[in-house]
Backbone:
């Protein structure tokens, strides 16, 4: 696992990146990008989440494949829930009451 | 528990410490397994009592034994108690708890204190459920369908929901413990391809517990919030969609069926090779099919909703996916059967239960094909056909496997043999009673008798009488083992360390095992189910 | 009431035969498979029972065999899927020109309204040989309209319409059950489907004390509630002219297009601002809680009657353009 | 437990539990356990994300208007507070690894302070909602929102669904924060006793994983709840 200690500079770097992204996402929301607003907001959120997972939670530095497997499979299951539910909701208007 | 006669020579987990504290504060997985055994047995008989009352009410077409409201509470609490307080913890929390560390050559589960915590959570949940039952009960059906449960039922929905929430927490912690233990605590040399199939089955089960249960938890939380604060997420009068509740509910509750049946399949995969003296046929296929069932099981939930008002197209998607999950189940059945080919087959009690399991699970699985077929499902869903189908899976499958496993490992757990003749008799009674109870319900269902009916048209009576008659036989079949298991703890023959000549690490230690399972930590150099290398034992005699 | 064979439900609709055919196929298949497995187990158990002079022969597995018994079932499963899906598609696609009957469910009774104005409770009279489409909604919890003799069932939901259809083939009296648990008297929420010869049915229709057709009822409610002050039969009204609207695509304020089907009309009455027609202001008052399900049914039927060519053939669903949302609730 | 017949007390600290062979095995097990727990947490919040997704697609106007009625300044500040707390947690793990006991305690305390700050700000926001009658239930009233945006069509009951999800999501997130503060209070107590150092810091590490996870949930809740539609109205 994360036996080697990471430098504190890197932690500050990640922190600054997270702060900047927060300000960016709050400001971009006021610009009209059409449907892209949602996309951008979620992309930035995902970038922030990735930074936290990879660096603060040390996933980038772990030799353990299992941790990554756990993360990926839980996200996969979440997407199963979302997409298969949407499969119903997005096709209901096609009729057949 | 154990008597002084045998404890003089050897110390083991049962006689190491005495007193109530040594049990209630234990972190020994074997003792926790016994705590679970006692608590789930209690709930099994509570649920069974409700079942008998239901069957008695249905003896006549008129609603004459109990009031309609009482009847509704009976089937609701029968479902909740049996599903959440018996079936889901049954094999994992009792046999799994006892055996998983031993089968992989570990001293204990990875988190012994969390293991104890999960038993306490179960007990808290159980007490909440009991309190709910004695102070008025709940009448929503175990499915909690909205808006009935949120806006119309005036029974103890919140309490029942919270009880199941807590029980779910307990189930999650058990699953988490198993996954970590299986990954991190295996004995040297015990590679994944050498793991007993019981372990594979529990691994798959744990995946479902970990990823499915939280969705049920949040769904119940939302139902509780809706009742307490009037949120309106599932309330159609305020723009909510009651079908969203059903989607979220079945996302857990369909895979939950596999939480019940997969461990049972694991038990059968241990019993069949042992009593056939054979390596298991197609180890890899059975192992991977457990994982496949765990994954595919999450893709099929809306087949419970074909007439609920979901879109035509999503119904078709879920129907075709439902057939995918049938394939790994079919593989298992064929491979177990093939394992017996050219074996040396013994008719000991555990094997009789395994026969029963294979037969009844096959019928339950095949009638599942009916329900996944859209056109048939429209007619038979919400009728007794469904009731019969899931009892074939959950009682014919899961409970048969559980009883088979209890007999198979009882010598290891208690250090005593149960009376073999009584064991075989009970297995036969359970099999006959079960079929008499539930087979007529398939016919009733196709004739159109809806489920959860307190009174019914007269032409359904003959079949209902058969079913009720069967249920009393079934009750005898379930009480018998409890009686002779208790009897055997004092009077049973002392068991050898390995009375069945079985493979597997749990048989390489003493019966009952010492507190840390092994006197010497094992190292595995052999493949699983090496029955070609183990001599068959002398047949257990039928005396007594 | 029932056939002589008491273990089989009556078969009294055009669709029932199809369901029975697949069911019989599945019963044969399941019996064959179960018996095959049982016989195999029995043969192995007896032929290879434990004897002192014989040892087990070790067989590790056979990939060819395992693939065979995975692929063949999968093939059979796909046949069942297609067969079942075809029946389901048919069951959920009401034919053009079906007679539309409204069903309102409540704890614990079925209220039924014929287009001619006849009202029934827990009874539904229909003629033989005519396509009947049921348009159903619930006032409280989820119910399910189940006619075993027709092999059809559909949950009845609060807050929206669901439909099912049938064509009866045999006169008689058949069970109507509520199949979705709905509270104390769930098992009492039953009734009868009375299938009659067309002539008798006509007599029954005229014999009853009909209070004007459903659409006419709707019209009087329409006037009573003052809808007609805005929804005028010309282009001068503050609301859209409703003539000829039903079943057609409607352009909305926010650019979307929806089909004006039963659920859209229903939603537009209860929650008018949700989908405002392009070019109009959201000034219509909300009628949620002000009109009963019965009145709502009549209003929908009235709006429908303003589009004669659409009436009785409401919105052939498969023709609806993609990308619209009409069943919001 | 310590008087087990098989385990000869090996030369390891008291933190190694009897049933593990090595400290590494124990730490790997704990870490995997926490990751699996986080996986269940994803599915727990996942149920609400699913409800959110479906209602947002159907009731976009109400969701956008509800989102506008939230205080974006407080929301952003709260995001920043949580990010800062994540930094102190990450630095805390590092301090433990390096054996800097004092620094560790300070960083843990800072984390707790940030945690309370977040909850305080959240409380202010909820109180505002209470004053505006935007709490779902009998007293819910969104007239102000309806009047504020005459140009879009807002259904009060659909607006209530937005606020139902808002309170369910932020409420359960806040509950996780409270549990996190409890965990960190315990860790601080243990750290004060000097329990953690380069040899043994697993509790700090897995406690940190939990805290970061709660932070990530907020990272998603912030745009999903506050930033649905902030652009100028047409």
Residues:
């Amino acid at each position: 696992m994360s036996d080697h200690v990471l430098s504190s500079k890197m932690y500050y770097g990640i922190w600054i990146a997270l702060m900047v992204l927060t300000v960016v996402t709050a400001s971009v929301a006021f610009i009209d990008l059409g449907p892209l607003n949602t996309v951008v907001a979620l992309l930035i959120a995902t970038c922030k989440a990735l930074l936290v997972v990879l660096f603060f939670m040390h996933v980038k530095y772990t030799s353990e494949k299992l941790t990554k497997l756990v993360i990926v499979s839980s996200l996969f299951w979440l997407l199963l829930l979302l997409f298969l539910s949407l499969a119903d909701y997005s096709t209901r208007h096609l009729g057949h009451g | 528990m154990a008597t002084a006669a045998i404890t003089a020579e050897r110390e083991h987990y049962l006689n190491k410490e005495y007193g109530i504290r040594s049990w209630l504060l234990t972190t020994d997985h074997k003792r926790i397994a016994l705590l679970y055994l006692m608590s789930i047995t209690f709930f099994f008989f509570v649920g069974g009592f409700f079942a008998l009352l239901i069957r008695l009410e249905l003896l006549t077409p008129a609603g004459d034994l109990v009031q309609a409201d009482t009847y509704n509470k009976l089937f609701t609490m029968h479902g909740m108690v049996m599903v959440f307080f018996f079936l889901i913890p049954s094999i994992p929390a009792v046999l799994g708890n006892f055996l998983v560390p031993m089968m992989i050559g570990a001293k204990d589960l990875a988190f012994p204190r969390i293991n104890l915590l999960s038993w306490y959570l179960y007990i808290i949940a159980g007490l909440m459920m009991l309190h709910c039952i004695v102070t008025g009960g709940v009448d929503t059906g175990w499915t909690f369908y909205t808006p009935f449960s949120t806006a119309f039922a005036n029974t103890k929905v919140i309490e029942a929901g919270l009880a199941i929430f807590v029980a779910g927490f307990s189930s999650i912690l058990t699953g988490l413990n198993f996954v970590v233990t299986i990954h991190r605590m295996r004995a040297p040399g015990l590679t994944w391809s050498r793991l007993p199939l019981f372990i594979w089955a529990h691994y798959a089960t744990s995946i479902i517990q970990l990823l499915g249960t939280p969705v049920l938890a949040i769904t119940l939380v939302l139902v509780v919030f809706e009742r307490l604060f009037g949120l309106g997420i599932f309330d159609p009068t305020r723009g909510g969609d009651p079908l969203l509740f059903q989607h979220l509910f079945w996302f857990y509750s369909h895979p939950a069926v596999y939480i019940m049946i997969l461990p049972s399949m694991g038990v059968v995969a241990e019993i069949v090779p042992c009593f056939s003296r054979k390596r298991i046929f197609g180890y890899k296929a059975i192992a991977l099919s457990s994982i496949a069932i765990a994954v595919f099981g999450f893709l099929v939930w809306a087949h419970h909703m074909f007439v609920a008002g979901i879109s035509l197209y999503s119904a078709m998607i879920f129907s075709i996916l439902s057939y995918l999950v049938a394939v790994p189940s079919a593989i298992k059945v064929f491979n177990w059967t093939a394992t017996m080919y050219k074996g040396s087959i013994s008719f000991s009690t555990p094997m009789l239960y395994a026969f029963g399991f294979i037969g009844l699970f096959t019928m339950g699985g095949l009638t599942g094909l009916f329900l996944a077929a859209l056109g048939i499902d429209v007619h038979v869903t919400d009728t007794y056909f469904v009731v019969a189908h899931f009892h074939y899976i959950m009682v014919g499958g899961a409970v048969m496997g559980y009883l088979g496993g209890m007999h198979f490992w009882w010598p290891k757990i208690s250090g005593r043999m149960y009376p073999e003749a009584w064991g075989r008799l009970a297995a036969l009674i359970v099999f006959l009673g079960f079929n008499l109870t539930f087979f007529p319900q398939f016919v009733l269902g196709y004739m159109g008798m809806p489920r959860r009916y307190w009174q019914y048209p007269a032409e359904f009576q003959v079949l209902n009488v058969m079913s009720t008659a069967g249920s009393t036989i079934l009750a005898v079949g379930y009480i018998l083992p409890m009686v002779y298991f208790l009897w055997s703890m004092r009077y049973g023959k002392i068991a050898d360390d390995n009375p069945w000549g079985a493979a597997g690490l749990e048989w390489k230690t003493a019966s009952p095992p010492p507190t840390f399972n092994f006197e010497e930590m094992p190292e595995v150099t052999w493949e699983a189910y090496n029955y070609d290398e183990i001599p068959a034992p002398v047949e257990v005699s039928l005396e007594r | 009431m029932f056939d002589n064979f008491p273990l089989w439900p009556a078969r009294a609709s055009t669709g029932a035969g199809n369901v029975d055919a697949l069911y019989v196929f599945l019963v044969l298949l399941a019996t064959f498979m179960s018996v095959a497995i049982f016989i195999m187990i029995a043969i192995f158990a007896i032929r290879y029972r434990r004897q002192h002079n014989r040892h087990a022969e070790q067989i590790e597995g056979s990939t060819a065999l395992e693939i065979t018994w995975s692929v063949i079932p999968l093939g059979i499963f796909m046949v069942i899927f297609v067969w079942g899906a075809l029946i389901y598609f048919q069951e959920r696609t009401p034919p053009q020109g079906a007679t539309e009957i409204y069903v309102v469910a409540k704890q614990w009774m079925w209220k039924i309204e014929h287009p001619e104005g006849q009202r029934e409770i827990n009874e539904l009279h229909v003629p033989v040989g005519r396509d009947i489409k049921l348009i159903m909604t619930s006032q409280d919890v989820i119910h399910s309209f189940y006619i075993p003799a027709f092999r059809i069932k559909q949950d009845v939901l609060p807050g929206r319409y669901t439909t099912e259809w049938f064509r009866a083939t045999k006169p008689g009296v058949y069970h109507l059950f509520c199949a979705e648990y709905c509270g104390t008297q769930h098992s009492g929420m039953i009734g009868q489907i009375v299938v009659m010869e067309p002539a008798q049915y006509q007599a029954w229709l005229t014999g009853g004390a009909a209070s004007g057709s459903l659409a006419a009822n709707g019209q009087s409610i329409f006037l009573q509630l003052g809808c007609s002050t805005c929804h005028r039969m010309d282009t001068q009204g503050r609301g859209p002219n409703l003539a000829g609207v039903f079943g057609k695509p409607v352009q909305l304020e926010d650019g979307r297009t929806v089909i004006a089907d039963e659920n859209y009309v229903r939603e537009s009455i209860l929650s008018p601002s949700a989908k405002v027609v392009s070019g109009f202001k959201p000034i219509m008052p909300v009628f949620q809680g002000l009109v009963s399900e019965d009145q709502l049914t009549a209003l929908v039927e009235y709006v429908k009657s303003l589009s004669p060519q659409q009436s009785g053939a409401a919105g052939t669903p498969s023709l609806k353009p993609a990308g619209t949302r009409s069943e919001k609730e | 437990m310590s008087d087990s017949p098989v385990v000869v007390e090996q030369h390891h600290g008291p933190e190694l539990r009897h049933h593990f062979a090595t400290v590494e095995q124990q730490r790997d097990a704990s870490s995997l356990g926490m990751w699996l727990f986080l996986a269940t947490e994803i599915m727990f919040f996942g149920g609400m994300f699913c409800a959110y997704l479906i209602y947002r697609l159907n009731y976009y106007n109400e969701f956008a208007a509800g989102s506008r009625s939230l205080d974006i300044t407080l929301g952003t500040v709260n995001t920043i507070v949580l990010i800062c707390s994540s930094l102190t947690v990450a630095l805390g793990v590092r301090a433990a690894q390096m054996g800097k006991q004092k620094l560790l305690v300070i960083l843990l305390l800072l984390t707790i302070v940030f945690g309370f700050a977040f909850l305080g700000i959240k409380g202010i926001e909820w109180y505002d909602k209470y004053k505006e009658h935007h709490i779902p239930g009998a007293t819910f009233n969104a007239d102000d929102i309806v009047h504020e945006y005459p140009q879009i069509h807002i259904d009060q009951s659909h607006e209530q669904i937005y606020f139902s999800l808002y309170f369910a999501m932020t409420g359960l997130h806040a509950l996780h924060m409270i549990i996190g503060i409890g965990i960190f209070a315990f860790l601080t107590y243990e750290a004060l006793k000097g329990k953690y150092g380069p040899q043994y810091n697993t509790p700090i590490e897995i406690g940190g994983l939990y805290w970061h996870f709660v932070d990530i949930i907020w990272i998603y809740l912030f745009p999903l709840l506050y930033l649905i539609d902030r652009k100028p109205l047409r």
About this structure: Residues 1-7 of chain B have pLDDT under 50 and may be disordered.
